[in-house]
Amino acid sequence: MPEHNWSAYEEALKANPVLAKMMISGVVYSLGDWIAQCYEGKPIFEFDRARMFRSGLVGFTLHGSLSHYYYHICEVNEVLNLMN
């Protein structure tokens, strides 16, 4: 990965970490669904776009934001456990 892409990603995480994680999750979920459809035997460019969109939407709206808060809660619990 080119260094400037990584730097831009790190800056996006600093500026708005939840949105950055939501965007990454949406893209990865969409690509994952496209790969799954190709594996199921669909031609590369004849895939179910609505299904891919729904999968990306789930990654964007649910996984990206929920995983951010889940890991934040886990980190807080770890700190609290270390303090006791």
TrEMBL record:
Primary location: membrane
Entry GO terms, CC: cytoplasm; membrane
Keyword Membrane attributed: yes
Keyword terms, alphabetized: Membrane, Transmembrane, Transmembrane helix
Compartment(s) of residence: Membrane
Top-level taxon of origin: Eukaryota
Topology in the lipid bilayer: Multi-pass membrane protein
Family to which this protein belongs: Belongs to the peroxisomal membrane protein PXMP2/4 family.
Record-given protein name: Uncharacterized protein
Species: Dichanthelium oligosanthes
